[in-house]
Write a structure and sequence with these properties.
Elements (H helix, E strand, L loop, with lengths): L8 H6 L2 H9 L5 H9 L6 H13 L3 H9 L13 H9 L5 H18 L12 H11 L4 H23 L2
Helix pairs in contact: 2-3, 3-4, 4-9, 5-9, 7-8
């Protein structure tokens, strides 16, 4: 079960814990988050799974946010590898073209210098120009505010990716 499959609630409830944790960690690479969801079984519906995932993501610690950031590629860079996480990132950033990549590369460097971590935004359905505009607007945030924004973006990404795990 190395890649998300689209479990219904019954299959989600009966999946081996280790396999389920691996699938959940492709959504958000925070072990405690995945464990809260896996340990909340059994669920009566996919909506109950989503609600548990959302609540668990609201409780991410600063250390968990930083650890999850370390697993994310820079916005505008094509993640290498065949893994599920790299494949998801490539799909989510499909609106970024080659021209956008150069501008994002420079803006990413400025962002990382200011905040000490990669820029993260829920990129699904957004163009490279939109992603760049969002990055530039967030450069004005103070570090504490930005960390809160990043935590919320991680939550959004996790919930979107969770849709590929459950149906």
């Amino acid at each position: 079960m190395a890649a998300p499959h689209g479990f219904d609630a019954e299959a989600f409830n009966t999946a081996p814990r280790a396999d389920l944790l691996a699938d959940l960690r492709t959504c958000l690479d925070v072990p405690r988050w995945a464990e809260v969801i896996a340990d909340g079984r059994p669920y009566g519906s996919a909506d109950e799974i989503r609600e548990t995932a959302d609540r668990a993501a609201l409780d991410l610690t600063e250390d968990e946010v930083h650890a999850a950031l370390a697993a994310h590629p820079r916005i505008g860079e094509r993640p290498a590898g065949d893994g599920e996480s790299a494949s998801l990132s490539r799909s989510e950033q499909s609106g970024v073209d080659d021209q956008d990549r150069a501008a994002l590369r420079a803006a990413n460097a400025e962002y990382e210098q200011r905040f000490g971590h990669v820029y993260l935004v829920c990129a699904s359905g957004r163009s490279g120009a939109e992603l760049l505009e969002i990055l530039r607007s967030r450069l004005h945030n103070d570090p504490a505010t930005e960390l809160g924004v990043v935590a919320d973006e991680l939550r959004k990404i996790a919930l979107l990716r969770l849709e590929k795990v459950i149906r």
